[in-house]
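hey so u asked for the seq, here:
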Amino acid sequence: MKAPIFAPLSELSSLVESLNPYKIAVLTDENVEKLWLPRVLEILDGYEVLKLVIPEGEEQKSIDTAITIWDRLFDFGFTRKSLLIGLGGGVITDLAGFVASTYMRGTLLGFIPTTLMAQVDAAIGGKTGVNFHGKNIIGTFYLPNFILISLETLSTLPMVEILNGLAEIVKYAILDANVYEILRAIRDPREVTKNLELIKASVDVKLRIVREDLRESGKRRVLNLGHTVGHAIEKLSDYKIKHGFAVSIGLAAAAKVGEFLYGFDSGKVIELLERFNLPRKLPFEPEKVISAMKMDKKAWYGRIVFIVPIEIGKVSIEEVPEEVILKSLEDLT
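ran it, structure tokens below
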């Protein structure tokens, strides 16, 4: 698996040239279309390019949207030797990856993640998917030919999107002591978007884990830290709560579980979440959250599997008694 390239957007020219695609399609949303699509099209001048612009939002990550894109690609004469570029946040990279992996059994694929969430998480690792009775129920593993991470695209991010991605960086801070130390020195969330060391360190944590376990048969599951509760909250909110904010609450819950089981210092996690004004309080009744967790694809035969922090830099994957989870969630109400 190739590492992302950290470079200005202008580097796209040589990346595309090295692939020599027959045609190019760029998938983006209406917001990113205004901000960054003109620059990308300028760089791709001379190629035959199809613009695929969809509305913004998690609800667009659906089979219906994928079918619409497949139709457009087919009518455009898109082939396996053509390149689909996902330009945007996690919804776009997940959807572009899914479409590219399934159209003609696989096309060329490139990502230009434009949000903090996508740069440190969604675009990395080869997971693709659409929502179907739950988050990412239908999906594939498919690695892009390139990932171009350009910090300039973070300059237009609103604070809500910075915080959305910052929750995933807090996750990496629990998994890795180096990320924890870098993040602990930061006070203003906006500093994160300019901190190449922190973003690279976060990406490196994910790359290291994914390279050991691409298809999530073992170690990769530690990346689901905070997501067992997080996905349940997203589903209960009908995806109105942003992924990062749901994961933030999930990280607080995981820290509490770690405290009950291993004496983990949950204050280290809670302090980071509080510093960046990330949510820690449970927005639903604990019992409802537990019911939703049992339906998650990460559950084992209806039993809840948790990624439990033992100390900073060390976690375990285990089935956690429901009463421990309930007690942890009640602490967040």
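Residues 243-262 form the longest helix (20 residues). The longest strand covers residues 305-311.
lmk if thats what u needed
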